[in-house]
């Protein structure tokens, strides 16, 4: 037959053999490498993210006061709600400074005169003798009271400012407020023990309660969460 090669060295089918319906064989084309239903121009669907291992999170501690309630520690910068104890601590600390703010402002505009000395309740001869021994005049005594009022005002403002900064989440300010409460609380009790003991006890008790609120368990967890969040932020 024409076109038939009888060369025994030839490999494969004869030259007249062509795949097709007559031979029963068809060429093998590569399979579609894309998912079923994909057409050219479509973007491949992203791979679903693997859900976190809930079993691994079950034993994590501590539990955080998040917006949805108490739950596992947030990861990836989850927002943690400021507990009400921090707000209560701020209110108590500000309330403890109000008497000193009023006292400082009033004393800065005070003028010492004979009428004021007579209203003090201290015998006038004793006051005159004490002023004579100290060599202080009425004007100098007025300036002394105004300086003391300014000191009270500045200390009260600094204390209130530190309380606000602690409320905003700065642990350093919280520690400073606690130290100032302990440093000035006891001397205040000793100084006012004879003249205004109830006032001194009330002010120190309110300030101490505010510090306790800032160091309560929910507050500690909130401060810790803010520290972790700050460490995870990119530089």
Q: What is the overall silhouette?
A: elongated
Distance between the termini: 84 Å
Order of helices and strands: HEEHHHHHHH
Unreliably modeled segments:
47-61
How many β-strands, per DSSP?
2
Roughly what fraction of the amino acids lie in strands? under 5%
Which whole number gives the mean pLDDT? 76
Rg calc: 42 Å
Amount of helix:
55-70%
| Spatial strand order of the main sheet | 1-2
The helix-and-strand class reads mainly alpha
Biggest β-sheet strands, sense, barrel: 2 strands, antiparallel
Describe, in plain words, how this protein is organized in 3D:
The chain is mainly alpha-helical and 235 residues long. It is 56% helix and 3% strand. The chain has helices at 54-57, 84-108, 114-119, 124-134, 138-167, 171-191, 197-214, 217-232, and strands at residues 64-66, 69-71. The protein has a two-stranded antiparallel sheet with strand order 1-2. α2 (84-108) packs antiparallel against α7 and α5 packs antiparallel against α6. It is elongated. Mean pLDDT is 76; it is low at 47-61.
């Amino acid at each position: 037959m024409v076109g038939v090669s009888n060369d025994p060295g030839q490999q494969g089918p004869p030259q007249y053999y062509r795949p097709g319906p007559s031979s029963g064989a068809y060429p093998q084309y590569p399979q579609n490498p894309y998912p079923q239903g994909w057409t050219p121009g479509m973007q491949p669907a992203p791979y679903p993210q693997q859900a976190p291992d809930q079993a691994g999170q079950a034993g994590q501690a501590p539990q955080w006061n998040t917006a949805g309630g108490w739950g596992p520690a947030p990861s990836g910068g989850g927002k943690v709600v400021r507990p009400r104890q921090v707000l209560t601590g701020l209110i108590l600390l500000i309330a403890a400074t109000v008497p000193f703010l009023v006292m400082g402002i009033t004393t800065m505009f005070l003028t010492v005169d004979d009428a004021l000395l007579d209203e003090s309740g201290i015998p006038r001869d004793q006051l005159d003798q004490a002023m004579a021994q100290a060599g202080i005049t009425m004007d100098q005594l007025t300036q002394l009271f105004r300086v003391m009022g300014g000191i009270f005002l500045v200390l009260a403002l600094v204390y209130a400012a530190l309380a606000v900064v602690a409320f905003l989440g700065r642990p350093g300010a919280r520690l400073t407020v606690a130290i100032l409460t302990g440093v000035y609380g006891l001397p205040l009790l000793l100084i006012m023990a004879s003249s205004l003991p109830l006032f001194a006890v009330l002010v120190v008790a309110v300030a101490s309660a505010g510090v306790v609120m800032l160091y309560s368990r929910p507050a500690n967890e909130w401060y810790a969460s803010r520290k972790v969040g700050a460490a995870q932020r990119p530089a």
